[in-house]
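Memo to structure team: turn this sequence into C-alpha cells by end of day. - J.P.
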Amino acid sequence: MDEELIYLGNIKRTILVVDDEEINREILGGILEDHYDVLYAADGDEALSVINEKGPLLSLVLLDLIMPTVDGFAVMEEMQNDIISRNIPVIVLTSEESAEIESLKKGAADFIKKPYDMPEKIIARVKRIIALFEDRMIIQSTERDELTNLLTKSYFYEYASLQDKFHPDRRMDAVVVNINHFQLFNELYGMHEGDRVLTTIAGAIKDFTEENDGIAGRSEGDIFYLYIPHRDSYEDLSEAIRLAVTRDFRIHNVQVRLGINDSIDDDMRIEMAFDRARMAGNTIRTDYSRTIAYYDDKMRKQRVFEERLIQDIADGIARNQFMVLFQPKFDIRGEKPKLVGAEALVRWDHPELGLVSPGSFISLFEENGLIRLVDDYVWRAAAMQIKEWKDKYGVSIPVSVNVSRIDIQDDGIVDNLLEIVKDAGIDPSELHLEITESAYASDTRQLVEVVEQFRKHGFKIEMDDFGAGYSSLNMLTSLPIDVLKVDMRFISGVNDDAKNHRMMELIMDIAEFLDVPVVAEGVEEEEQYATLKDMGCEMIQGYYFSKPVPADDICNFID
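Reply from structure team:
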C-alpha cells in the first residue's frame, strides 16, 4: 500500500461517492477518507452538479446505478458527452451482475459489488483505477504533437512496431514527407503562417493514413512520418497535400518531397526503415521536377560510402589529403582579359577511395556540421597561398572561399577568419567570402549581422550562385554585398535560350542598380564570353580560360 501511495504521489486525490442510500455513502466514506478527499451526492442530479463544478479536481466517481429520477446510466451518458468529465474514471456500485455489460458500454472502468464487506479490496480497486487513468492521461498528453495532433516521433515508432507485431504478414511502407526550404518560408511569411501550413499538411496526411489503414506522426519541424500498408503509388498523397495547401493559402511556392522505403526487411529496425526513406527524399532536395523518390540498393551503397567519408574526415584533414585548387577569375572589360583573382575549390585525395569530388562530401558535411573542418582547412590554405603568391610574384591575387550556413552559425567565425588572415600576413580584403546558397535559407537576422561584421573588418562579400533560387533574390533587400556571382545555369543557356538571355540582362541591371560587379561562372565557350562582354559583365571564370589548377600554375596567367 505504501508503494502505491508513492506511485500516486503525496497529493490526496478527490473522489465523488454517488449513492441514494445514506448508509452506503457513510460506509464508503469510512473506508476511503483516510486516503482521499471524499465528496458525496445523493442522486444523479446532485452528482452531475458536483461533476460540473468540481470536474477538473475529481480523480474518480463511485457511482450507484439504481437511483430515482436520474440513474447511474444517465449520469455516465452525460459525462461521456462532456469534454472534461469524459476523462474521469467511473467505478460502478451494483449488486446486479447483468448490469456490467451495459455499464461498460456507457464508459465504466470497473465494478464494486454490494454489500461493501471487503474494505481492502475496495481500496485496491480504487487505487488501481486512478493510477491507470492518470497514466493514460500522461500518455495522451505526450503522445500527440501539440501543433498538428499527430503522433510524436517516439510514440509513432512504438505504434509502428505494434503494427508489425500484430500484422507480421502485412507489407508496410515507410514514408517521409518534407517541405522544401520551409525555414525560408517562415522567414518570408512569419512563424504563425508557417504553423498554419504545417497544420494543413498534417490534416491532409492524417486523412490519407486513416483512409489507408496507416499511422502518421510528426518527427520534427516540417518532417512527417507515415507507416502505410504497401501501395504502388503515392502520387495521390502528394496531390492531396498540394491541393490542401493551395485551397487554404492560395500560394504555390510550398513544395513537398516524399521519400519512400517500400523494401522493409522483417528484421529491420523501424528507425532504420525511416532513415532510409528520409535518405531517399534527400536525393531530390534540389530537384524541383520530382516530388517522390524511392530508396534502393544504390542508395544503400551511397549511404555506406558517405559513412566512410564521415569516419575518415578527421584523419583526412590531419594527413593533408584535401587538395585546394584555384580557378582563375578574369576581368574582361579591357581589350585583353586580366587575372584579378581566383576561387578556391577543394578535392579529397582519399588513399583508398581515390579522388573524391566536392559534390560527394560538401552537402553531406553541411548536414552534420563537419563542413566547418573542411572550410577552415580551405580558408587557411587560401590565405597562406595569397601570401606566397604575393612574395613570389609581387602581386596580390584575391581568393574567394566558401562560407556555408553552418559557418555562419558559429559565434566565433569572425574572430577565426581575422586570426587566419593575420597569421598569413595578408589583408582581409584579399580573402573574399562567398556566401553559399544554403546560408540564405538560415536565420536572416544572424546572416546580416555576421556579414556586416565581416565588411566592417575589410572582408569582401560575394553572393554565390545568384539566381539559383528566390532566396538569394530576397536577400538582396537586406544583405550588404560587394560582388554578384551568377549561377552557371544562366551562362550555359545565355545564347540558346531567350529567357536565360533576358534573365542575364536583368541581373546585369540589378548589379548596376546595386553598384556591384558581376562574376559569371561556368563560361566554357567563346560565344558565351562574347555575349557576356557585350552585356557589360565585368568578370568571368570557367573552362573557357582555365579549369581549377594547382597553386603553382597560377603563374601562367599573371601578366
